[in-house]
Amino acid sequence: MNAMSLSKRFLPIVAALTLVCSAAPAFAVSYSAVTEGVWHHSERRATKAGPMAINVLMVDPHIVDIRSVMAERPGGGFGRAAVSTIAKEAGAIAAINGSFFSWQSNEPASLLVVNGQIVSSSR
C-alpha cells in the first residue's frame, strides 16, 4: 500500500488524534511498518501532568485477520494473563488490551464480544 492510499484510509483517525493531543508538542515520534497491512505510530509528549505516551496500531482489514481473544482459566471461565502472553498463545503479530476486568472474578467490566458472540455484558 502506498503512502497516499494509507493516508486517505487513516486520515480521520490521525485527525482525531491530532485534535485530542495537539495541546502538548511531541518530543519523540516514530512510525514503522510491523508487517504487511500493520503499522505502528508512537508519540511521546511532555504535559503539565507528566509524560504521555500515545500508541496507535493501524490495520488494513483487507490484508490482516483481526480477531478478539480472551484469557481463560484452565477448564474454562474468565482468566487473567499479560497481553503479551495472550498474544503469543494466539500467534498474534500485534495486540491491544481491550478491556478492564474485576480483580475478584476476572470478569470483564464492560461488553466483551469474541468471535461474534457476547461473552460478557456491562453491568
Briefly say what this structure is:
The protein has 123 residues and is α+β, with helices and mostly antiparallel strands.
Describe this protein's structure.
The chain is an alpha+beta fold and 123 residues long. It has 2 helices and 5 strands. It has helices spanning 3-21, 83-90; strands at 26-35, 38-47, 50-59, 112-114, 117-120. The strands form 2 sheets. Strands 1-2-3 form a 3-stranded antiparallel β-sheet, with no helix packed on it. It has a two-stranded antiparallel ribbon with strand order 4-5.
Number of strands: 5
Distance between the termini: 42 Å
Roughly what fraction of the amino acids lie in strands? 25-35%
Structural class: alpha+beta
Strand arrangement, largest sheet?
Answer: 1-2-3
Question: What are the key terms here?
Answer:
123 residues; alpha+beta; three-stranded antiparallel β-sheet; two-stranded antiparallel ribbon; 5 strands; 22% helix; globular
Secondary-structure blueprint of this entry?
Layout: H1 3-21, E1 26-35, E2 38-47, E3 50-59, H2 83-90, E4 112-114, E5 117-120
Antiparallel strand pairs: 1-2, 2-3, 4-5
